[in-house]
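Progress narrative, Year 2. Work on Cytochrome b5 heme-binding domain-containing protein from Gossypium schwendimanii advanced from sequence curation to structure prediction during this period.
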Amino acid sequence: MECDKKYITIQQLEQHNKPGDLWVSINGKVYNVSDWSKYHPGGETPLLNLAGKDVTDAFTAYHPATAWQYLNKFFTGYRLKDYKVSEVSKDYRSLIHEFTKAGMFENKGHTAVFTLTSVAAMFGFVFYGVLCCNSLWVHLCSAMVLGMAWIQSAYIGHDSGHYIVMSGHGWNKLVQLITGNCLTGISIAWWKWTHNAHHIACNSLDCDPDLQHIPVFAVSSWLFNSVTSSFYGRKLEFDYMARILISYQHWTFYPIMCVARVNLYIQTFLLLFSKRKVQDRTLNIMGIIVFWTWFPLLVSWLPNWSHRVMFVLTSFAVTSIQHVQFCLNHFSANVYVGPPNGNDWFEKQTNGTLDISCSPWMDWFFGGLQFQLEHHLFPRLPRCHLRQVAPLVKDLCNKHNLPYKSLSFWEANELTIRTLKMAAMEARDVNNSGVSKNFLWEAVTIHG
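Result:
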């Protein structure tokens, strides 16, 4: 009976927002996930970012219908007083319901098979070019093809990380380890750790690790306040060296992207050999051992050091296309400070995300992530459906007067460089005067 139900206020829910005392609300019912957070497949960070809040939209976005049956064991007996659903959320949930009825989340298409086949063919070409030819030009082409193979492997690793490649959890994990750890040398555990936090706290300066690149890059002068990263648990120091580097970031952006892969290798080792709790640590270490066995052996087969250096640098430089793309999707979008709110999921994704417009034949090249907003809103949706749902997302944004930003690859690069240059000029103001002249403007616009 209604009179027997117990209620708490939103303010009371917000008090349960720390490790060991972590409550969330889903559809107005309050759940205690303090103990479960340690075993959560997506890691503890996403739950901590949304602790003490209503997380209905985020939960719906990330979990299939079968997950709802497991919620009852976490139910506190409380319901959220004055629980309301915004019109945006109603329309968003309606879209998810339509996609579910149409079987779009289960229908994975043939994209993964095509991409895996192309990756296998590219690796075959690379090994043939290195092992069977002595020509510098063949080795150069092989390095370029290896870079493209790494890009496509990363896309498959990304998709399998969202469990949208294979039907079973175990098969997806196998694909993750092969395409991530074994073929690219980048730990899928590290990727899932950072990527889940990025999705949940998209473009939060202190919660989203994909924007925390000080001392090399800063997309907003808010970062000049030495923001404390809730993700890394440390202060992002805006010191003298950071000021110098950021002052020229619009010039160094592309050169750094050419060797950005080195940082991913470093981050992989730092996580796997840290004291942090890492899911499948042993499997991840075994996977990167596979990579650091075949890749050095392949390079060593080249006839001399000039070929070897050229081969490594060229293969790394080609992958810069992908690193740049990831930056284009978010660097020039709106940013904010603080943890995300669970009840404005749709709005936060539209404000913090930029799509890249292209022809359908380029979908393979961009790995589906040119539809970045659609992917953020429906992370369980296989990439073969993203182009199909894009017009529906755009209509919903127009209906609720929310931004739907879609630019060409060239236009997105221009906007990203302008964003970096603006922050660089503000960093120089800090250098000259000690205080940025633009903090008031930032406080009003809170824009990247």
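DSSP finds 19 helices and nine strands in the chain. The domain at 6-84 is CATH 3.10.120.10 (Flavocytochrome B2; Chain A, domain 1).
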